[in-house]
Amino acid sequence: MKVRIVNIVAVTALQSPFSLAKLKAVYPFAGENCLTHIAVSHERSYFPIFSTGKVLSFSSKSILGLEDAFTWLRAFLAQFGLKLSNSYEIVNVVGVLQTTTPFDLLVLGRVLPHSAYEPPSDLGLYDYHRQINALIYHFAPSPIRPRQTALIFSTGRVVLTGFKSIEILKMKAHLLADQIAQIVTSHPSVLAEERVPLARRSPNIRSHPMGAES
User: Which domains does the chain have, with CATH numbers?
Assistant: First the structure.
């Protein structure tokens, strides 16, 4: 099983004192009422720069990529008389793993602890959250945010979010994979293929639902 990192979100700040006047003249504020942030992008990275001096980084897929992105931003801001802090904090890591077997989410939600599943509604796009056809799994139910959660889709795709490090995300992904594998063994009905009529099922032996470890 391989976990793929798709987004590392980090926060840093401009060194005080600072003025965004020169930067704002070239990159005007974006967002509601044009008061939210200055949007700067480079390759696949996106940097919202706020009037408070707070700076975010989105879309890096590795620590090396994140540091390269900040190195570029540091040189870019220097052209406008701005100095970016040399330190940063990772506030969220998002990863994806793909299992080899589709799931019946309604059944899986009944046997997987700390999970909840509500079938998508027909209320239209205005009720966006209920349109996500995924089971929500909480690794450690807690009021602390961001919460470490996983979205398990019927295709077998699992999206993990709310982590502060890549290592912890990968560790929790393997634990979840093992837990689901045990559930599949004891409750085969969680597999979507179990809903297919017997005559239409492949005679081949079913592979491990969470894939081979790597």
Answer: 8-87 (3.30.310.10), 93-200 (3.30.310.10)
Give the model's pLDDT for residue 199.
40
Tell me the backbone φ, ψ of residue 53, rounded to 5 degrees: 100, -10
Mean pLDDT of 11-34: 85
Note the pTM of the prediction, 2 decimals.
Answer: 0.80
Question: What's the mean per-residue pLDDT of the chain?
Answer: 84
For position 80, what pLDDT does the model report? 96
Q: CB neighbours of 44 closer than 8 A, spacing ≥ 6?
A: 59, 60
User: What pLDDT score does 31 carry?
Assistant: 59
Structure tokens at 193: 């293929």
